[in-house]
Amino acid sequence: MTNFGLDIWSNKNFIIEDGQIKLNYKSMPSLLKIAQDIRSKGVRGPVLLRFPHLIKKQIRSLYWYFDKAIKENNYKGSFNAVFPLKVNQFPHAVEAVTAQGKEFGYGLEAGSKAELILAMSKTPEGGNITVNGFKDKEMITLGFIAAQSGHKITITIEGLGELETIIQVASETKIKVPNIGIRIRLHSAGSGIWAKSGGMDAKFGLTSTEILEAISLLREADLLQNLTMIHFHIGSQMSDIAPLKKALREAGNIYAELKKMGATSLNSINIGGGLAIEYDQHAHTKCHNYSIEEFSSSVVFLLADIMNSKGVGHPDIFTESGRFIVASHAVLITPVLELFSHDYQEQHLKIKSKNPPLIEELLELNMLLNNKNCIEYLHDALDHMESILTLFDLGYIDLQDRSNAEILVHNIIKKALYLKSSTPTDELERLQEKLQERYLVNASIFQSLPDYWGLGQNFPIMPLHHLDATPLRAASIWDITCDSDGEIGFNQERPLYLHDVNLDEEEYYLGFFNVGAYQETLGMNHNLFTHPNEYTINVNDTDYEITNEEESKNILEILSSIGYNENEILKKLETDLEKSSFITEQEKSDTLAKLDLYIRQNGYLRTTL
Ligand SMILES: *Cc1c(COP(=O)(O)O)cnc(C)c1O
After folding, report:
1. Which of 107, 349, 379, 467 could form a disulfide with 127 if both were Cys (CB 3.0 to 4.6 A apart)?
2. Do 603 and 558 form a contact (C-beta atoms < 8 A)?
3. What does the alpha-carbon distance between residue 315 and residue 79 come to, in Å, rounded to a whole number?
4. Does ligand 1 lie within 6 Å of residue 314's CB atom?
């Protein structure tokens, strides 16, 4: 039996009970039951489930550990956090973030004009707004409008040009000037596969010379009192905490220097995002090496240390961690449509009344295989297989014999794997890999796990049921796009084993976990597969409630979203059919009705019940 690394990646969000994965919260519903509930209403294709309680858990934990560190270090500044919208802008995700974050004064971060408008309309009262990314005069003016409308907003400048624009807008209007932050260009870089945001060659931030220049520009324009924040972001999914500490020392010293230079309103350090979550299902390939507790206490301790030694007051701390907050809240669930080695199942055997001797022997090995003899019998079977293939090449046995032999040997290997599953030999492990099974899932990797496709980012994958049985098939996952990149291959480093199921008799559902950060907006409509049906699941003490259904775009909608004229397409299809000669009027209207139904459903497959 295996728990699919649940103890490594799930942060106790899920547990396995009665062979199923369940939410480790309140009434503890099983994911399978929720999925079946949804499918009982006729929904097909992949579904994305959102669990707001998991967002709440992350927000709480962020604030709780920083508060703890602040108390322990006798830190004088406050802790503030904002959610970076780019991590997930979908309405029901943002709704969950703002609803769950309200009591903490959790705010929003915007990196573009559209995100800023979203932040201005969705930030809960009392929450901060921070603005990063490249900005034009319009975007900066929007920042002024936000300040004028009563938001606690800080616009972080990424370069001197933006500061000049702020000064210009301030001189042209009488509306409120927002707080100004400076993003510093670190000489230290981040870690992990997203570490491009830090370092001397980083895309963003001011060098030390530019910072000095910024201070004099602000002073001249009489805006120095609006400079409140120093900001940096060393990149997403930091694998190690050491680069953060370096960046903090750098930022902390810059802060202290600027305070001494007369930036009296400067009062906060924004440490950006980058808090990692665990995606890996194997202890030896874990993708980060620190906890939220270590993270928060390191930040608070270091800042206190720097400020104390420089004789400067403790700054308020801002974080913009996004992945940490939302990654775990969403789970993609999809049925398996097909196992490709289905053909090797015993039911396909067509044993003749008279068989070649080697086949007779295989039949016997298959029948008599047991725990004691299985390695020996396995070796015999593999040996026989070689001989049978040679006999086939030489024309001594026919295709039916060969097929029977392949099924029998396949079966013998599977039985041996099963019998030895608790003590597999190297040889068995190698065979297991060779016997890789391909699981075809009703989903698109491009749409739902784009970071796997683009960056090789792993996501935890596990079946929702059968968890009281040992999974024995080395698995690769195939999606239904017709692109060979739509595959999660078997990886020896982090092997995934799934169950041998007969899909003619039972269903098999897989869950893809930690997909709540970045995947949804990065997801693309490759092959015109669209964002899956999504649901918010509110778990309570006795049950759960399925709300916020957002249906996947139907075929007409997706075509129209890329610029086709829905009516034109519909009309063309219908008139072509109308013109054709049907035997009966009934048949004609039935066919038209079918067409109309299909075109108004999403494009995922509807094969499974
Ligand atoms: C992307 C980004 C974040 C969020 O990073 P996470 O790794 O998701 O925590 C925070 N701040 C800035 C400036 C960003 O660009």
Report:
1. 107
2. yes
3. 9
4. no
Q: Taking Cα atoms as reference points, which of 462, 583, 381, 584 lies closest to residue 16?
A: 462
Query: Which among 275, 252, 269 is positioned nearest to 11, based on CA atoms?
Result: 275
Distance CA 182, CA 65 (A): 26
Write the DSSP string, 492-513.
SSS--EE----TTT---EEEE-
Extract the tokens encoding 56.
């709440």
Q: Give the relative orientation of helices 91-101 and 113-122 as an angle to the nearest 10 degrees.
A: 50
Residue 540 has a CB neighbour count (10 Å cut-off) of 12
Q: What is the pLDDT of residue 414?
A: 85
Report the pLDDT value the prediction gives residue 438, as an integer from 0 to 100. 93
* Amino acid at residue number 40: S
Query: Which residue puts its alpha carbon closest to atom 12 of ligand 1?
Result: 272
Check if the beta carbon of residue 118 is closer than 8 Å to that of residue 144. no
Any ligand 1 atom below 6 A from CB of 326: no
Give residues with Cβ within 8 angstroms of 592, minimum separation 6.
574, 577, 578
How many angstroms separate the alpha carbon of residue 323 from the centre of ligand 1? 8
The CA-based dihedral angle spanning residues 139, 141, 147, 151, taken in that order and rounded to the nearest 10 degrees: -20
540: which 2 tokens?
């309570």
Domains and CATH numbers, the chain: 6-50+331-341+435-552 (2.40.37.10), 75-278+294-316 (3.20.20.10), 342-433 (1.20.58.930), 556-599 (no CATH)
Cα(494) to ligand 1 centroid in Å equals 27
Vertex 115, ends 125 and 237: CA angle to 5°?
Answer: 95
User: How many Cβ atoms from other residues are within 10 Å of residue 234's Cβ?
Assistant: 28
Does the Cβ of 183 fall within 6 Å of ligand 1?
A: no
Q: What is the largest CA-CA distance in the chain?
A: 101
Handedness of CA 248, 250, 251, 253 (dihedral sign): positive
- Kindly report the pTM of this predicted structure: 0.93
Which of 134-138, 283-287, 376-380, 421-425 is the least confident region? 421-425
Confidence at residue 423, expressed as pLDDT on a 0 to 100 scale: 84
Residue 132, ligand 1, Cβ within 6 A: yes
Which helix (H) or strand (E) covers residue 258, if one does?
Answer: helix 242-260
Measure 236 CA to ligand 1 centroid, in angstroms.
Answer: 6
**φ/ψ (deg, to 5) at 69:** -65, -35
Reported as a single tens digit per residue, the pLDDT across 193-210 is 555 555 556 678 999 999
The single-letter DSSP state of residue 316 is E
